């Protein structure tokens, strides 16, 4: 059974085609690929088949729809593709970023689910619309294929009320569900589990802080095996400084911009979501570009990195205090997995907890990047949101299939 998993991020679409054999928990990857730098210069579309056959396309990818069409073509490429036709697919799993309180776990997609995802789109303007585009694109081509949605928000539903309620009048929650939701849950949950495995201890016995640092970024605290707090909030705008998102602000700032500069809600939203963060501070959003600029002596780029690192350190410090300790700090996603400078700078301030960085291991992106006598372990774990989505897709479609028998 072939399952296609589509993971739309704000700047990229990652995808994997899995072959699943009934009755075992093995997911063979037939091909994986990525559309990268969507909406900025230097967009790329790459696919690698399990035997190593590669496809590359360069040229502008202006939005997620164009990217999805390119991906479906590559999968069916006559020479280096993996599908004779899209009819060979058994199911499709999608990452969906904002499930609000409507979804506490993954679901089969139907019209009501699409409606609920659309309802939550205002709360995740960079994400739910591309997620819906993916669902729609597949639906248009294969209307009968089962599709599954796996939500970023689901895992954080375990947060205690003290962590998810805001200091607002209660009606705001009761009537409008204004609360912290948290995102990147599929990734945080996966890497926390992998970190526990790497440390040879049960997840429920560990206090873990996971740092998902991609174009968007968030930090999560895990205690007793559950997410107990996370840096993103009602929307994926809150928390650390990100590629184009401001992260935490004094909540009066957007009101002041509207009053003082006469800006509309959508203009202010664009400033905070699309023109802020690293892009707003130094004119670049991609950490690879920012790193090159720092090397060339660009002061704004250096300041952007300092602010980025500082915002991450503050969350790690807060969560260590929230849990009355921390056993492991985990780095994942584009920046977390690839930028050893960033990891080293972040961890520099945790000597007071007895954390000791192993400089060589960190530079080599090894799994454990702290010394043996470090009181807190530092780890680099490759995230695999696609595998988690494939597992849920298989489980949910099989449940329905077995009910039919
Ligand atoms: N090989 C790499 N070296 C350094 N940074 C990288 C590398 N690959 C990705 N990144 C950084 O990761 C970010 C994208 O992370 P990713 O997790 O793919 O984002 P998203 O899923 O939010 O689109 C980019 O902004 C880039 O700065
Ligand atoms: C929720 C979110 O910010 O996702 P991404 O990092 O993929 O943009
Ligand atoms: Mg991502």
From TrEMBL:
GO CC terms, sorted: cytoplasm
GO biological process per UniProt: acetate metabolic process; acetyl-CoA biosynthetic process
Short name of any one Pfam family annotated for the protein: Acetate_kinase
Transition state stabilizer (site feature) positions: 184, 245
Record localization: Cytoplasm
EC number: 2.7.2.1
Gene Ontology terms for molecular function: acetate kinase activity; ATP binding; magnesium ion binding
Pathway(s) of this molecule: Metabolic intermediate biosynthesis; acetyl-CoA biosynthesis; acetyl-CoA from acetate: step 1/2
Subunit (UniProt): Homodimer.
HAMAP family: Acetate_kinase
Record protein name field: Acetate kinase
Encoding gene per record: ackA
